[in-house]
Every structure is written in structure tokens, then in C-alpha cells.
TrEMBL record:
<dbReference type="InterPro" id="IPR003265">
    <property type="entry name" value="HhH-GPD_domain"/>
</dbReference>
<protein>
    <recommendedName>
        <fullName>DNA-3-methyladenine glycosylase II</fullName>
        <ecNumber>3.2.2.21</ecNumber>
    </recommendedName>
</protein>
<keyword id="KW-0234">DNA repair</keyword>
<dbReference type="InterPro" id="IPR011257">
    <property type="entry name" value="DNA_glycosylase"/>
</dbReference>
<feature type="region of interest" description="Disordered">
    <location>
        <begin position="1"/>
        <end position="21"/>
    </location>
</feature>
<keyword id="KW-0227">DNA damage</keyword>
<dbReference type="InterPro" id="IPR051912">
    <property type="entry name" value="Alkylbase_DNA_Glycosylase/TA"/>
</dbReference>
Length: 316
């Protein structure tokens, strides 16, 4: 799914539209949009057999569907739905036009190699906070398998089918008011404990203020998110990386990331957050990109402890 953006004619029909995307340089759609996908069965994200990336989203103007596909040296994008015009205007940012990979200077042989190999990586900027915040809250202190299952159930139960000729089963996530009104027993059925559910409800109730964070400098955006009880540094970083396209907002408080970074850069599998930040200090301004490249390298420390077992609260 690698390609290169070039100017193209905007296609607008009764069913959908598109937009010129003034991005130069290599672009890998899978790497760039991949962080927006919450598991292989995410109802808001689909990669079809022809290589098209489909994404359903809820914009301030309503639901919208995006289809993007690489065609040799070009990438074609089409949009549908009430929010199509909003999405069209932000396609460049979504597809990495505002990101500057050249700002990253590798200072370690591993990063040099993966930076060259993954030249099409760009950091997406969605301009939308809640759609990244909610699934991130669902991932707090549980396995990703649990979180992905909860997200899938809630979006299918309370969302709506994606507009346009979208693949069957593609859904737009619920609007903020709907999240705020989900009853306690439905959270339980979705395997979401009361603490995470309460955090999402609190966030949904102040959604307009949180959405404003997408237009703030990343550190200020994170501070605003963390005013909501239940949202800490881990959650705010994971959200702002996507909503604001923040190249320097490295995730702290993660169970695995410090050890992975420590192992990749210094052979230190016992690294904690402080050690990780020390190792990433030479990449100030690009620390999130450095961590992302390390994860893409596949170099991880040998596992010693057994994998964490999923916890199904629905049987309680």
C-alpha cells in the first residue's frame, strides 16, 4: 500500500467526493493509518482485498466514510456522507501531509536501518479527539484483546452503518451523547469495568471542550485531557499522537514500551520510564516517531513472564 501523492482532479458525485492531497515523498497507507485501527476486526476500519483502506469516522458535520488506495505512484481518496466535506478538507493532515519525516535524525544503527526501510511512515493527524480517546480508555490496564472486543461490541451496538458504498459491517462510532447514555449493564456486557466506563462517560459529557484540544499544541492538549478524572499521561499521549499528529509525545506508563526501547537502544530489558526517556532524549522533538520506529523494527526482548490472561468481568 505504498504510494506517492501527486495533484489530481477532485472527483465529486452525488455519492461522494475527494480532495487533492499536496504531499510529496513516499507514503505507506498501512503504516500511516494503522494506528487508527483497533484490532483486526475493528468495525470502523477495513482493508479490502484490492488494497483499499476504508475508514468510518464521525466528524463535527456528521458521519463520513473514507476510501484510500495506492495506484502506482498516486494515492486516490474518496469520501461519502454528511461529513465528507469536512473530511476532504483534512485529508492532507490525515494522510501525513503535515508531518515531516526529514526532521528525524537517526542516531542509532537500528533506527537508521528501520527509518530507511519504513520511509513511507508518516504520522497521521485526525483532528478528532473522542474517536481516539475512547478506545484508548478501553485499553487501560487490560489486554488489547479485551479492549478490542469491547470497542467492537459497543460500536456495533450503538454506532451506525458507514455512509456510501462501504464494505458490509463498517460502522461509524456513536456520537458523544450516546456514549454518555450507555447504561451500566451494557458496559458490563461489553466487558468494561465501572472505572473505565465512568471515565468515558465523563469525557463524553465534556466532548466539545475535549475536541478543541485537537487544535492546541500537543502538551497543552494533553493537559486539557488530563483534567478529566481517569485520564492520565498514558491515555493522553496515546490520544494526542493520533488526534494532533504529535511526533514528540512519547507514551509513558506503558507496561512494555520502556523495556522494548531499552532493549533496542541499549540492550537493557529492565528499563523503566525514566531510562526510556533518557535513551530517547537525543530525539527530542521526535521521540514518539523514534519509539514508533523501534516498535516497527520488531526487536523486542525475550519474554520471561507468561502473557497476561484476559479477564472477563461478564461472568462476575
Amino acid at each position: 500500500m505504498a504510494g506517492r501523492f501527486v495533484p489530481r482532479t477532485t472527483r465529486t458525485t452525488a455519492r461522494g467526493g475527494g480532495a487533492d492531497v499536496p504531499v510529496t515523498g513516499a507514503l505507506d497507507l498501512g503504516l500511516t493509518l494503522g494506528p487508527l485501527r483497533r484490532g483486526p476486526h475493528d468495525p470502523t476500519f477495513r482493508v479490502t482485498d484490492d488494497g483499499s483502506v476504508w475508514r468510518a469516522t464521525r466528524t463535527p458535520e456528521g458521519p463520513a466514510t473514507l476510501r484510500a488506495k495506492a495506484h502506482g505512484a498516486e494515492v486516490a481518496a474518496e469520501t461519502w456522507g454528511p461529513g465528507a466535506a469536512w473530511l476532504d478538507a483534512r485529508l492532507p493532515a490525515l494522510l501525513g501531509a503535515e508531518d515531516d519525516p526529514a526532521a528525524f535524525v537517526p542516531r542509532h544503527k537500528l533506527l537508521l536501518a528501520v527509518h530507511r526501510r519504513r520511509a513511507g511512515l508518516r504520522l497521521t493527524r485526525t483532528g478528532l479527539v473522542l474517536e481516539s480517546l475512547i478506545p484508548t480508555v478501553l485499553e487501560q490496564k487490560v489486554t488489547v484483546t479485551e479492549a478490542y472486543g469491547s470497542w467492537r461490541r459497543l460500536v456495533r451496538r450503538y454506532g451506525e452503518p458507514a455512509p456510501g458504498p462501504a464494505p458490509e459491517g463498517l460502522h461509524v462510532m456513536p456520537e458523544a451523547r450516546t456514549w454518555a447514555l450507555i447504561p451500566s449493564w451494557e458496559w458490563h456486557r461489553a466487558n468494561v469495568d465501572g472505572k473505565r466506563a465512568a471515565t468515558i462517560v465523563r469525557a463524553a459529557r465534556v466532548a466539545p471542550r475535549l475536541e478543541e484540544a485537537a487544535h492546541l499544541p500537543p502538551p497543552e492538549a494533553r493537559r486539557r485531557l488530563e483534567l478529566v478524572p481517569g485520564i492520565g499521561p498514558w491515555t493522553s499521549a496515546e490520544t494526542v499522537q493520533r488526534s494532533n499528529g504529535a511526533p514528540d509525545e512519547v507514551t509513558t506508563g506503558d507496561l512494555h514500551l520502556p523495556g522494548i526501547v531499552g532493549w533496542a537502544l541499549a540492550g537493557d530489558r529492565t528499563a523503566d520510564d525514566a531510562r526510556m526517556l533518557e535513551l530517547l532524549a537525543p530525539y527530542a522533538g521526535q521521540r514518539h516517531r523514534a519509539a514508533r520506529l523501534i516498535l516497527l523494527s520488531g526487536r523486542t526482548p525475550p519474554r520471561r513472564a507468561p502473557r497476561r490472561s484476559p479477564n472477563d468481568i461478564r461472568s462476575l
